[in-house]
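Forum > Structural Biology > Help requests

Title: Can anyone predict the 3D structure of Protein ccc1?

Hi all, first post here. I have the sequence for Protein ccc1 but no way to get a structure on my laptop. I'd be grateful if someone could post the structure tokens.
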Amino acid sequence: MFLKSTADKSGTLMGVFVPCLQNILGIIYYIRFSWIVGMAGIGESLLLVLFCGSCTFLTTVSLSAIASNGAMKGGGPYYLIGRALGPEVGVSIGLCFFLGNAIAGAMYVLGAVETFLNAVPSAGIFRETITRVNGTDIAEPITSPSLHDLQIYGIVVSILLCFVVFGGVKMINRVAPAFLVPVLFSLLCIFVGIFSARHDRPAVGITGLNSESFKNNWGSAYQMTNNAGIPDPNGQIYWNFNALVGLFFPAVTGIMAGSNRSASLKDTQCAIPVGTLAATLTTTGLYLVSVLLFGAVATRDKLLTDRLLTATVAWPFPVIVYVGIILSTLGAALQSLTGAPHLLAAIANDDILPVLNYFKVADGHEPHVATLFTAIICIGCVVIGNLDLISPTSTMFYLVCYAGVNLSCFLLDLLDAPSWRPRWKFHHWSLSLVGALLCIVIMFLISWVFTIVSLALASLIYYYVSIKGKAGDWGDGFKSAYFQLALRSLRSLGDT
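Reply #1:
Sure, ran it for you. Structure tokens for Protein ccc1 below:
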């Protein structure tokens, strides 16, 4: 029986590395990254990638230490933080992470719909065409999907995905790795297209790998845009480095995908650190190389007006990238819409907060009520219809969770609790402290107002759990530290 159950579990590659890679590498890279390079320039885009990548790298180091400290059950980051810092902190950060996953599902759905409408403009019920940029005529009209089309198609896709999620997590986990194959193939087509691009390409603005383009695109070009991201001096949105941090950061999230599968891993204490760090470093390296290539292959105007430059340069056909984008985003959306209900059910099953009793599920059963609640949140965000507004919102809740992971590792390391004996030795309390502070800094860079709202929401949940919640039946890090302090005091008193 034991050998059979072990054989059914996943290893580092399929259990951690592939899910993390699939969640990290997604819609932002395909339909926003070249635009970010055009807006921030090559220099500041490199800084942006290193800045955001450092945050997730330090969080991964802290996650590796906590995950290798003992046996892990379901609940992902909630289980880790709750057992380290107590039920109040665990529930408050766990619920924030649940909201982040639910909102991320809407972000992926909108990304898939926007890509589909760009690939098949005739499918749009409403159409928006832009023929002028910065007050001057452009060589070719820019077609942008209508907000109403995004809303209508987004709601339909969300409902269909929710029906799939109701079918069970086993079916989704069986199909999910197949979504990664088109993504990797589309990446290969993009890079082949970039290196084979010539000056005489029919597409306007594609210069081929050109030192002149690289030089012209090195500096930033922050400006006003409309809601579709098209440069417009009368637009409603002004972009700067802080705003781009909020837009890009979801492209480096997804590091919790391995820990969310902890119950199905053969060796969590080895698989989570190795697989998560490998996925983080791989995607960060890919982003850095892509900044240099995108900045050298097209003009500034092309970078800012062609939101699907990845498809434009792809060889041999743009449709390969369209298919890759849609499948990768739908796969990531399924992961989010599957992970969020299971996280909420894990919080409810700990019986800490009575108000969450509706979401309890028995072992081996699917959390249907939690899935329905997640679907309502996802559809509500889809109605907003603006990917550039939803992305920073999801970012805030991810950052709250990452800050909690770093803070957990920092305090456990500093308190030197008896139960704190991680197998992962490549960590230090100073790295965790820097990671936590970096998360807070990024939150304030994106929006100090929403940062205060997010931290206030987490604090409110913490206060509510401390009043209405029940005490957890596990020994968290603080209790362990109190025990150690009492033991040392008794020994000191005995010596005296």
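The chain has a mean pLDDT of 81. The chain has 20 helices and four strands.
Shout if anything looks off.
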